[in-house]
Amino acid sequence: MSEKTLPAVTLTGEPFERGQIHGETFSAEVRENVERYLSLFAHYGTDRDEVLEEAIKYLEVIDEHNEAYGDEIRGIAEGSDLPVPQIALLNARYEVVYSAYRDEAEDETVSGETAGEGARYTDGCTSFGVRPDVTADGRAYIGENWDWNVGVADQVVVTRVRGTDGLNHVAITEAGIVGGKMGVNEAGIGLAVNGLVTPTDGKTPYRKPFHVRCREVLSTDRFANAIGAVIDTDRTCSGNFVLGHREGEILNLETAPETVNYRYPEAGILTHANHFEGDAAESTLERIIPHSLVRGPRLRRLLATERGAIDVDIIKRTLRDHFDKPSSICHHADPKTAPIEREQTNVSVIADLEERTLHATAGPPCEHTYETYHCPT
After folding, report:
1. Cβ within 8 Å of residue 19, ≥6 positions away
2. DSSP class of residue 152?
3. CA-CA distance, 334 to 343, in Å (whole number)?
4. Boundaries of every domain in the chain
5. For the segment 98-151, what is each residue's pLDDT rounded down to a tens digit?
6. pTM score > 0.85 for this model?
7. Would you say 110 and 284 are in contact if contact means Cβ atoms under 8 Å apart?
8. CATH 3.60.60.10: does it fit domain 122-374?
9. Hey, which residues does 2 pair with through a beta bridge?
């Protein structure tokens, strides 16, 4: 297996200072990430100027909801020597795409219902949570395989955040994005995420972005506040959040723009892929990636066979599963797909909520070893 590891940085100080460190450390990666997304937008016919105009509008929304997050965006721009709108674009990329497409999306239909062009920019993923009563060491774990564009793989980084405006935490993110997608903080609160899509995504723009909510989850010392960060206001687009606490509580939030489904572990195990399992919203992403309907239930079955003996090694083995490859839990690029559209598991991550650590790979877990990243104290 490859010994390649994810590049990591410790971010300290006030928000703008943290952003500067981020931007300076990963200047090349940030620049490449911006160009990757602009190329993706162009590939699907979205105008560069239009998405950057939308990014500016979303920066105003970010400043309104979380001023520190906006300051960190500006710090990244300063450190990487890039225009602020380009960094804002990365941090609101889900919302920007849906907003840019909101007129065209009304004309796009799948089985008679609006699918929305923005669905093309929604990450895949297979996530999980296991309670202490089903693990060998009595600890709670959450995590996922994060499936997304192959071209983004080299821009995935680890940030260890030791700031003045929230709890210390360690997170996996993309270069240039302030809010971590997966992480754990010093209070033992962890986060994993999945993409979801409904026909109403993008119809109401300029709400608090997804990545801002992720940062707020990892900045709080209370589980209730972590839940609130996800559901306290309505959203522009859908998304799934797996929240876990070191004392064993695990909660799944399937969020649509104006509704939320709540799911809990069954017999100590929770899994999720890229479709709504509750009935509070119409789910459409599985029409584009039907393998979502298999990955979540299969991961549950694989973990359930080890109930009571689940440990990090067993979780690693399940995350390497190749049933129905390449559209498997361990996802691989489909050579039949256009190169710019190919996706794979860019990161496999297991969060130990008791130890406040992330075990993560720099690519598909069948090809790469897991490295351990610790939450700063």
Report:
1. 71, 72, 73, 74, 75, 76, 77, 78, 79, 178
2. G
3. 7
4. 122-374
5. 765 544 444 443 333 444 555 666 778 999 999 999 999 999 999 999 999 999
6. yes
7. yes
8. yes
9. 368
